[in-house]
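User: Second chain of the day. Same drill as before.
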Amino acid sequence: MINSPAIWSFCNMELDVSRRTVIMGILNVTPDSFSDGGSFFHSEEAVAQALQMQQDGADIIDIGGESTRPGSAPVTLDEELDRVIPIIEKLAPELQIPISIDTYKAGVARQALQAGAKIVNDISGLRFDPQMASTIANFNAGVVIMHIKGAPRDMQKNPYYNDVIAEISEYLTASADLAIHEGIKKAQIVIDPGIGFGKRLEDNLEIIRNLAKFKILGYPLLVGPSRKSFIGAILDLPVEQRLEGTIAASAACILNGANILRVHDVLEIKRAATLIDKLNKDI
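Assistant: Same format as last time:
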């Protein structure tokens, strides 16, 4: 799919997300994330991993201090801050690419942006914390507005949709309108349909097949298929053996309109995306 020009503007930066697939590398500084929990919980390992992802071709590093895997319980504001702020403070002067903070708490977003982050990736689509939209606007930060049905603790307990594409589109549109009402510019916004966040297997497949319908909303599109449970269900594989499935899902996302991929395996997905971009985009 050849995308129309799209520039993601934030914090006096511009990122062209239509010329090629943009890669957001995942850095979970948590003990319990579904895929890499505990791997980068200590600051030295986290900093080294971020620098390696940059070398491997990441365009953004997305740092999260609270697991949002299905069934996870929330952590306190102070605990999340203790996990992410020291990492951001160490990385901000070292990285040549922007840092994203993966949080739904305005207090975490505020301190992360003060420490050097440029983007807020909010799984709730600005719904869980009423101060989030204004916080992002005050910093002129980028924002990823994601769809979720329920909350991480209960989102996979029998989720159901009458029309998954229409319902997600309605949610994302309402959240984007809220963002603009609070002072966030349209050019600062990216949307994410939320693969695996309150979705059944068939919902995730329907979303990927119909990504082009979300592009109609007028925002760049981020998708996070990396190592997700739908891959494990189809291939009958544990998390640590889902690389090939992630590559295949990522390829489908690109071909169906994704501008940005949020992934764990930056080097491998970057290589695959580069080839697909050459084959299918006017670059």
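The chain has ten helices and ten strands.

User: Great, on to the next one.
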